[in-house]
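Technical annex B. To support the medicinal chemistry partners, we prepared a structural model of the target in complex with magnesium ion, based solely on the information shown next.
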Amino acid sequence: MSKPTTYRFSFGPWNISEGADPFGPEVRPAFPHEEKYALYKPMGFDGVQFHDDDVVPGVDDLTPDQIAKQAAKVKTMLGNQGLVPEFVAPRLWFAPQTIDGGYTSNSAKGRQYAKDRTLRTIDIAREVGSKAVVLWLAREGTYIRESKNARVAYERIQQTINDMLDHDKEIEIWIEPKPNEPTDMAFVPTIGHAITLAYASRDPKRVKGLIETAHALLAGLDPADEMAFALAHDKLGSVHLNDQNGLKYDQDKNFGAANLRVAFNQVRVLEEAGYGSKGEFIGLDVKAMRTQKGKCVTSHLTGSREIFMHLVDKVRSWDKKLEKQFVDARDYEALELAIMKHLMGVK
Ligand code: 3MF
Ligand code: MG
């Protein structure tokens, strides 16, 4: 039997939030990014996920030289803390140029901005010491489908991926699919879409997916199956584990907090595929509750990590022989009861 995986965890500084939501202002005092990095290790996290402007604030107004200097500064800061920059994502959804989307905007100027900023993100990733860029295609979609030619939009996304692969011969692109929000209908709603873009690209080996639990659930799909699909193609770059209580706004709840069995199955799929053994991170994209008090709140992150580790124990202690026996007998009722008892800790 192969050695059990020692999991490494990551999250992005945006996960330590000030509690603002679309209906009200911040409810906790601001906590500077630099101070956040000092919290990672003591909390049991080794990887930092970034937006380009988390690494280089005000990136749009800086020269390439200034950008490189700032990225090098962050690289040193991470090194001092013993942290690894897992990926950098172009934050394309804030700028006035991307109101109608980035790569799929109807404005040629808007598309050019999106491309330039994305290529700059690749430079930042390299300078900060990360091998991957994540594309969360936030505004690549529509509020009314007639507003964009979807076929042309897919061609434009494909072209962008090729441009990125050409810009840097080593960087990997991890596409994070989501079916809706902020748009009504997104162009890359599932991992199947993302992986098709990977295979159709100039260098399929360097294009993978990042699967977020809540995004799969919002698409009406099982996150464990989405992960299994990517793993079967050796294309799971990273994960954003969290949870989602039905088809609502994107909740980013604590991992396993809405559906423990669905969470168990994600851990089972990851564990059985040996995910993490090549250095892949267990990324958590969880939001602190707005009600939580504190200058800086982190218990949603440590709690989700703890739940993950307990589920790893559950996966490792699950009686596979019993499972085989029930599967061979096609007695899935008995299999279900056994799983539920295992999860509940009932003998
Ligand atoms: C989306 C993401 C991030 C977002 C983050 C902040 C890498 O699910 O994971 O993109 O930027 O959630 O809103
Ligand atoms: Mg996410």
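Notes passed to the chemistry partners:
The chain has one domain: 8-318.
The chain has twelve helices and ten strands.
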